[in-house]
């Protein structure tokens, strides 16, 4: 079979690329080694983690906050089996939706491992080891990533686990030890903390979510402490071992003093690594980048071999589903002869804890490092009527604007529903809005979004109305 485009990998990068190729009239195939489409994000990432975050948040609210709302419950219990079953149902529905979209867009789906025979020939090896070859003018590598570990830790997938196993536990841990205070650790740690686990975070750097604006990590740490998290920051993990049902994690503080933490589960969440196993890149002469072992691409997401492109987690940049999706559309349109564009500065980052955390553009630390003069305006949710009504008063919105031109350079939020609120900042910044522009736009009352307007007012010279 001869195709215009063969996509290897069906995560949000690959399946979106395939749909866009189909829409553009390109004869397209997608190869996925697993039996369901959707990749990490739909099967063991974004979607199942958000399903569990929502369920556990309902329980937490019922347990801790309903009484204050005047709703009294008795015999409240967690049915983890049902929670996981519902999560699996959400995953099934979502991955099934991708199968439908492939058919709708006339994309042929192959199940098996895709590997290069040469730049125009891809071999598909099925589970039963039978093979089939297809030929193509273009290939999009979208093989994603897998959990990283530490060289001295063996992940037994029972007690020392990755995010994949953490999404399918059969009991609520008594004490979950998290290695890594990044996005995965804090999201999945929140799920189990809300369900009653003690959670200890051991983080190498001096703050949690260390790549985001420092103010956000500090604020989130306060909220998570209230939820029962403990933090060992600036601690280097040195080992983890299992004996019976006990996991012992060892670490060192900055002075080299040893620390030992015992729990019943340990989640290793120290990042993810690009996944290229089985692709047989040697056949086409593509050498992985030294740092991160990622597939090298130029500014058009083309590898050193013409006609072979790569997108998503397997290449440089943020490991985010929406980044992969943008790149999928970009490459499809490029192959179809269009001139697409991605603004990498405006890819938002979101952490789905409660309060949620969301960010776009430059952090205060980056602006300081780059010597850019800026003004900052903040607005706390405790001053928002909407937030008081829903008892979600933790957090703030911070707007950073150029000191001279007033152009918004960065927006950092922690609070209720900021995962959705950040979209307004992205739109504004895409159109190069000034803080004054946002300050003069009418926001419905009472909404959480008013806090963005108030922060913009604060950034333009202390004009916030409600503080
Ligand atoms: P992937 O989704 O990893 O898909 C790659 C696919 O390629 C896989 O299905 C794999 O089986 C397949 N494959 C690999 N090699 C081959 C081969 N040789 N032949 C055939 N198939 C192959 N991001 C967000 O933006 N928001 C979130 O809320 C979020 N939450 C997350 C929560 C967790 C627990 C995790 C682990 C990740 C989360 N992410 C989130 C990150 C997000 O999942 C990834 O950034 C995204 O899935 C990357 O998409 P991708 O298409 O590049 O690769
Ligand atoms: P991460 O990079 O977000 O966090 C890893 C953390 O582990 C960092 O804070 C790092 O300093 C720390 N660390 C590294 N080595 C350590 C050590 N030896 N001891 C202690 N701490 C150590 O990675 P993650 O949380 O594993 O997530 C992986 C990827 O998945 C991320 O790139 C993220 O973008 C993506 N993801 C995104 C979302 C979302 O968008 N909401 C959710 C989950 C995952």
Automatic annotation (TrEMBL):
NAD(+) binds at residues 180-187, 203, 271. It is an enzyme of class 1 (oxidoreductase). The active site is at residue 445. One of its GO terms (molecular function) is dihydrolipoyl dehydrogenase (NADH) activity. Disulfide bonds join 41-46. Its EC number is 1.8.1.4. One of its GO terms (cellular component) is cytoplasm. Binds 1 FAD per subunit. PROSITE patterns: PYRIDINE_REDOX_1. Residues 347-456 form the Pyridine nucleotide-disulphide oxidoreductase dimerisation domain. One of its GO terms (biological process) is 2-oxoglutarate metabolic process. FAD binds at residues 50, 114, 143-145, 313, 319-322. Keywords: Disulfide bond, FAD, Flavoprotein, NAD, Nucleotide-binding, Oxidoreductase, Redox-active center. Residues 3-328 form the FAD/NAD(P)-binding domain. The active site is a redox-active disulfide bond. Belongs to the class-I pyridine nucleotide-disulfide oxidoreductase family. This is Dihydrolipoyl dehydrogenase. It comes from Sphingobacterium sp. (strain 21). The lineage of its organism: Bacteria, Pseudomonadati, Bacteroidota, Sphingobacteriia, Sphingobacteriales.
